[in-house]
Amino acid sequence: MQMGRLSRRAFARAALSTLATAQGAAAVPGPRHRHWPWPRAAAEMRGVWLATVSNRDWPSKAGLTAEAQRTELIAHLDRAVRDRLNTVILQVRPTADALWPSPYEPWSEYLTGTQGRDPGWDPLGTAVREAHARGLELHAWFNPYRVANHTDPTRLAASHPARRHPDWVVPYGGKLYYNPGLPEVRAFVEQAMLDAVVRYPVDAVHFDDYFYPYPVAGQTFDDDAAYDRYGGDFSTRAAWRRDNIDRLVRETAAAIKQVRPGTRFGISPFGVWRNAATDSRGSDTRAGVQTYDDLHADTRMWVRNHWIDYIVPQLYWHIGFAAADYATLVDWWAKVAEGTKTQLYIGEALYKAGAAGQPSEWQDPVELSRHLTLAGGYPQVRGHVFFAAKDVAADPVGAMARVVADHYGQPAKPPR
């Protein structure tokens, strides 16, 4: 399948055509009706990430029967309801694959154990329907450029676009990535992701923190040919790379508005844009990674320009952590979001609570509740999202239970 460049208007027309003919689209309900028989708290985001990559949260392992997979999924949704959460962010495209019957990419191996094998049911369609039936929002979480957590293209399904277009792929750090510098790659990944928005009434499209890959010492991301061809108008390779990611964000936002108005667009970046030592506008941190410089993602600009509807910086550090203090970063992000139309939620490291090897702060079940108390002092913070669903369910030291008891006494609808 040869993918050329598409204008946004042509892209939207093609997507709308797909919407009219998508298999099974009618089986998923449209506008849903939430019934709340109890008092509601003020609107705030109470979300949980449900990761499928490497079977992190769900399915618990590859190769389960369709019924077992569905039962596990429903259990995660029911747990979210019990904890008075209101949003599930389901990873539906973990490695250039799909958890729905996509015409562009193969079925995910994390379902059956074999990439491209039909699991016998529609996980995303079921998730949307069952989440809405429970009064939950369902945000579809996509990873735009990661192709595989290995570097062997022959392990991909024979029909995989990365095998048919090997020039699109860059091996780096033991993984395979689509090259963000190629316009045809950007057009393809946008179309592949938008197919889910066309088919299902998801409440939002969600990107995580992977744009250009995290730096690996001693290795170079080989995009020389793309830079030589397309980077001539830029003063540096870094500026060109940032422009590639900016285009992905702007074009995705525009396409979502074309094909399903009202569906939101959110991004969850690494929590440090730039350290103040690098840029006076940055945070008073000493982080080893800076999204602007290392992942080529200008997350601050996306918020200030309202390119996205919400941002969920991953503030996965405890209060008082010297290199990246949670309190310092909440204050910095609140100032970034102030006066903008981009809503700010905070990404919380529930997975660290009680985990072996974590410092004493994370062994205290009250640490996470303190985060919500601190963030509650900032009107710009409209809620929190917890990583991740397996940890919500297990809750080894009761950190999530403490959050619910201290902060989630009543249900709340998500902010809009």
Summarize the structure in words.
There is one protein chain. The protein is of the alpha/beta class. The protein folds into two domains: about 1-30 and about 50-140 and about 180-265, no CATH class; about 270-375, no CATH class. About 35% of the residues lie in helices and about 10% in strands. It has helices spanning about 10-20, 65-80, 110, 125-135, 160-165, 185-200, 225-230, 235-260, 290-295, 300-305, 325-335, 360-365, 365-375, 390-395, 400-405; strands at about 45-50, 85-95, 135-140, 145-150, 170, 175-180, 205, 265, 310, 345-350, 380-385. The strands form two sheets. It has an eight-stranded parallel β-barrel with strand order 1-2-3-7-8-9-10-11, surrounded by six helices. A three-stranded antiparallel beta sheet has the order 4-6-5, with no helix packed on it. A hairpin with a 2-residue loop joins strand 5 (about 170) and strand 6. Helix 1 (about 10-20) packs parallel to helix 6 and helix 1 (about 10-20) crosses helix 8. The radius of gyration is 21 Å and the shape is globular. The protein starts with 7 loop residues before the first helix and ends in a 9-residue tail after the last helix.
Topology at a glance:
Blueprint: H1 8-21, E1 45-50, H2 66-82, E2 87-93, H3 109-112, H4 123-133, E3 137-142, E4 146-148, H5 161-164, E5 169-172, E6 175-178, H6 183-199, E7 204-207, H7 224-230, H8 237-259, E8 264-267, H9 291-295, H10 299-304, E9 310-311, H11 326-337, E10 343-348, H12 360-363, H13 367-375, E11 381-386, H14 389-394, H15 399-407
Helix pairs in contact: 1-6, 1-8, 2-4, 6-8, 13-15
